[in-house]
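Please, structure for the following, as tokens.
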Amino acid sequence: MEPGSEGPFKRLAREVAKFGAVGVVGTVVNFAVSNLLWHLTSLQAVRANVIATIVAIACNYVGFRYFTYRDRDKSARTKELSLFLAFSLVGLVIENGILFAAIYGFGWDSSLQRNVFKVLGIGIATLFRFWSYRSWVFKALPVADMSEAGDEDGDEAGEPAAKAGAFIKSQPEPLPRPKQHVS
């Protein structure tokens, strides 16, 4: 492989690492907000956790859009945000459903038990979110055909220079301007 090009597994590994970095920040926010609410307010545990999850979702959207998936299609932001919120809501239900079952189904309501089941819920919800965000929300731009990009040196067609070259080559030749006669 040429320098600068990478295979699909390396791209996926980089995407997972970026997703994980944003996820770590979101998880820290989620735990901080939920534990503060649990210890400083009289809110019920699951309600406090729902608030914490919503705050983390907002932080994660910014991180995913401007860090993890910044190179993805940005043409339909309203649709993207709607899908992000819909899939995030499903993740919220997964995360908080597990916490709800632990607290109200089994009576596991100590601070340690809440946090253990919060970790379990976040883990399962994260798997769902990764799949749904990369499949439906932050869609990859179509990769240009190598022959269209005029790529003789083996560089990846997805690079900006190759995309620009393909775009320029696809433009029709301008029509000649008529000569003007000055009298």
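Residues 101 and 107 are 9 Å apart (CA to CA). Residues 146-158 have pLDDT under 50 and may be disordered.
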